Amino acid sequence: MALQAPEGTKDLLPDESKFWTYFKATAAEVFGRFGYVPIETPLFEQTDLFVRGIGEATDVVSKEMFTAVSGQNLETLLGGGTIKAKSRLSLRPEGTAGVVRAVVQHDLVPQGAAPAKLMYAGPMFRAERPQRGRQRQFNQVGVECLGAEDPSVDAESIIMLMRFFEAIGIPVESMRLLVNSMGCDVCRPAYRDAVRSYMDAHADELCDECKRRAETNPLRAFDCKNSGCAAVMAHAPKITDHLCGDCRDHYGTVKQYLVGEGLSFEEDPKLVRGLDYYTRTVFEVQVTEGMGSQNAIGGGGRYDKLAEEVGGRPTPGFGFALGYERCVIALEAAGYEFPRAQRCDYFVACVDDSVRPEAFSLVQAARNAGLTVEMDHQHRSLKSQFKLADKLDADQVIVLGPDELVAGTVTVRNMATHEEYAIGLAAMKSLLSRFGNQLFDGDFSSMLKSASEE
Ligand code: AMP
What we know:
alpha+beta, BirA Bifunctional Protein, domain 2, Rossmann fold, 3 domains, 8-stranded mixed sheet, 16 strands, 39% helix, binds adenosine monophosphate
C-alpha cells in the first residue's frame, strides 16, 4: 500500500493551502490595525522551556509533547546514557513559550519601552488522540503583547480576536465568548487550597487521575472530561469568590471595556484553560453549531509571570491562539463558500502545433505584465484546450491559429458570455509591453476590447 500521511496530520491541498494563505493575510491585516507585527520562532525548542513555561503537570507537557532527538543522541539514550539539557528538544505544542523566550533572549521589551506586539502563524504539535477538530499537527495563528498589565490590553486583544473571526466569515451569532479571571500569586494559592480540600472531601467520586491532580495541580480537574468529575467540579469553590482586590478590579475593568464595545460574553468561573502560565484574565471562544466536543476555536489570557519563569525580568503579557482547522470546520458548518485555488485570467490556446512558439512567447509577455496565464503543455486538441481553460476558470481564451497568424490577428473569447472578437497580435503585444508587472485582469480585458474596436 502507498504510504499515508502520519496519523493526526492533514495535507493542505492547493484549495486549502490557498485558503490558509488568505486566512493568515486576513489575520495580519486585522491584527496589524492593532499594532501587531510578525515574528517567527523555531518549530522546536529546548524541552525545558515548555516544562518551565507551560508547567510539568499539564497534559500538554506531561503526555502530549513530541520530543525530538538527533540520531546520535538517540543512540546515546538507547545505550542508557544521558544527553545535555540543551540537546533535549521538543516540537512546540503552542506558540507563547517560544515567543516569550525570544522576547527575553533579544530583549525586545527593554525597561520603559512600549509593549511588544507580536503575531505568528504556523504548525503546533501535540500527541493527542486524533478526532474531528483534534490533530497531532495543526495550525495556529496567535498574538502576544508583552510589557503592559493594563486591562485595556486584555480587552483590546479579545475584541481583536472577535473582529478577526467576523472578518473571516464565522457568523457572530454562532460564537460564544467565555471569560474568567484566574487570580494572581496573592489570591490563587488560597483558592487552590480551597479546591484541593473540596476535592479531598469528594475523593471517592473522582477518577484516579483527578485524585492525583488534587495533590499536584487541583485546578486541572476543571478540564477533566469524566462526567463524574465534571459533576463534582461543577460545585467546587469559584475563583471569582476568591479574587484579591487588585484582581477583582482588573477583571471588572476588562468586562467594562468589553461591555462598552457591545461585545456579549458569558462569565465562566470554571474556565481555567489547559496551561499553567495564566494569571488573571482567561477567555475562550466556542462555536455552538456543528463542532462536536472540539468546539473551542480560540482562546488565551494573561501570563504576567511567564517571562520570569523562562529567565527574564518581570514582563507582563497577554496572548491568544486560534486554531485554523477548527475555524475551517466552523465555516463549513456555516455554509461558507471556499474559493477555489486553481484559476487563471487568460488561457492561450493553439489551433495546431505550428503556432506554439508564438503562443509560448505571448504567454510569457502576458505573465511579465502581471497577468495569470496558462497554456497547454500536452499537445491537446483545441476542444480539449477549451475544456482545460474552463477547468482552470479562465475568464478569456486567446486563440492562435496558423491562418490568423499569417494575417497578424488572434481571437479573444469571453468564457462567460461566449462573445468573440479579433485583435491584431502586434497591438496586443504592444499593450502588454507597456506594463511592467502591474496589469490587472479587468483593466487588460477592457483595454484589449477597446483596442480591437479602434
Ligand atoms: P490552546 O493552545 O490549547 O489554547 O489552543 C488554542 C486553539 O488551538 C484552540 O482553541 C483550538 O482551536 C486549537 N487547537 C488546540 N489543540 C488542537 C488540536 N489538537 N487540533 C486542532 N486544533 C487545536
